[in-house]
Design goal:
With about 400 residues, the protein is of the alpha+beta class. The protein has 15 helices and eleven strands. The two termini are about 15 Å apart.
């Protein structure tokens, strides 16, 4: 089980129920996952990833990048037509036919249905009634307005008016946060863990799925190791979104604050975009600009995770090292220091809401109180206890 694994090296663990007799008769083979410790999250749990072949969902920098893109968004007039390929374009898409509202994606339906202010603005702008038809996801995907227009074209004609409603960055982030709180809920039993779920989160496929012997909706194939790996991933990702939710509630101007954040992390480079015309759909400058911001956000992600959010980076490949911005390192990393880890202390970046600026807090070289007691205990254990017996002295969670 993952909870019994040592913390000082990568591990290869089987993530399927290969000892189950019924599954063995179907031909289930062991499926090994190379679990490499990468971070200690805010809950103090080890985040494991696949270092050699990192899957998109397992790369925490992708979550950071998504949030920073929203912070970097422009705020448009509510009904302004915005060039659709810009990375800061977050419209709700609708059409109107015969004074009836049609939703062009599920997000538009969700926001119109659940946000009274948005519904009021749209209804007032287009003189719509409070009652509306709520389509299914399938109807939205199949363009349900088309069928309605065909049935009524002899009476009302074929004129369908299309419009967009621009969300603010704050509204867009709250949508994302709401979706992540639902999506990143932990699995509570193995019967919830289907082949699709494991493929989505870990990019792993048991041979029964690859050979089409079972539907990917089948549960019971994967074991407790798989569930713990996934739940650890979900917990860690959700911590990032919740951290930024708390942080952004303190921020006035998101774009200016983001710029200062990138400057503090020494990754900011000025970019002056060319004028973008609405009729040039494949304008190359758009992709240049997107790539420019992507690279900057990715470059900032490591420092953000460690120095701002407060994760601790674990390195095991060359030299066992913890990189952290915590102060009380002997108390925090007692067990890992017994395993001969080095600890690298970095300055901590904090946001002062009163003045709306960031500032660095340098590591303290004064070791006192409980932290000094832990340091002395570590020194004595390492002096008198052989390496292979040191786990007896671990602090239990």
């Amino acid at each position: 089980m993952l909870s019994n694994l040592n913390l000082d090296k990568p591990y290869c663990c089987n993530i399927v129920n290969s000892n189950d007799e019924n599954l063995k008769q179907l031909g289930l083979e062991p499926l090994l996952f190379n679990a490499t410790p990468q971070y200690i999250n805010l809950a103090g749990h080890i985040f494991y990833g696949e270092k050699n072949y990192p899957h998109y969902e397992c790369v925490l920098a992708n979550d950071i990048e998504r949030i920073l893109h929203i912070m970097n968004s422009n705020t448009y007039e509510r009904f302004q037509t915005v060039y659709s390929s810009l990375n800061d374009d977050y419209p709700l898409r609708f059409s109107i036919y015969n004074h009836q509202l049609f939703f062009h994606d599920s997000k538009s339906l969700y926001m119109y249905k659940n946000n009274q202010e948005i519904r009021r603005e749209i209804n007032k702008k287009y003189n719509l009634s409070e009652t509306f038809y709520e389509p299914t996801t399938k109807e939205i995907n199949e363009g349900y307005s088309e069928d309605y227009i065909i049935k009524h074209k002899d009476i009302y004609g074929t004129k369908e008016e299309f419009f967009t409603f621009n969300l603010t960055p704050q509204e867009q982030f709250q949508i994302l946060l709401s979706l992540k709180r639902e999506e990143l809920k932990p699995y509570t039993n193995l019967e919830q863990l289907s082949g699709n779920a494991v493929r989505h989160w870990l990019n792993c496929n048991a041979n029964l799925f690859i050979e089409n012997k079972c539907s990917r909706k089948t549960t019971g194939i994967y074991n407790d190791n798989a569930m713990k790996l996934i739940n650890n991933l979900l917990e860690t990702k959700l911590e990032i979104y919740e951290f930024f939710n708390t942080f952004l509630q303190q921020v006035g101007d998101w774009k200016d604050t983001l710029k200062e954040l990138l400057i503090k992390l020494n990754v900011y480079k000025e970019f002056t975009p060319s004028k973008i015309e609405n009729n040039d759909f494949f304008l190359p400058d758009i992709y240049v600009e997107n790539n420019y911001w992507n690279q900057m956000f990715q470059a900032a992600s490591f420092d953000l995770l460690v120095q701002f959010i407060g994760f601790d980076k674990i390195e095991t490949q060359k030299k066992k090292t913890i990189t952290t911005s915590k102060k009380n390192i002997y108390e925090e990393f007692f067990n890992l220091l017994l395993l001969d880890y080095d600890v690298v202390e970095l300055p901590k970046l904090i946001f002062d809401a009163d003045v709306q600026h960031f500032r660095w807090i340098s590591p303290s070289f004064i070791n006192a109180g409980v932290n000094r007691e832990y340091e002395n205990e570590i020194r004595l254990i390492k002096k008198y206890v052989p390496y292979e017996e040191r786990q007896k002295y671990f602090i239990k969670e």
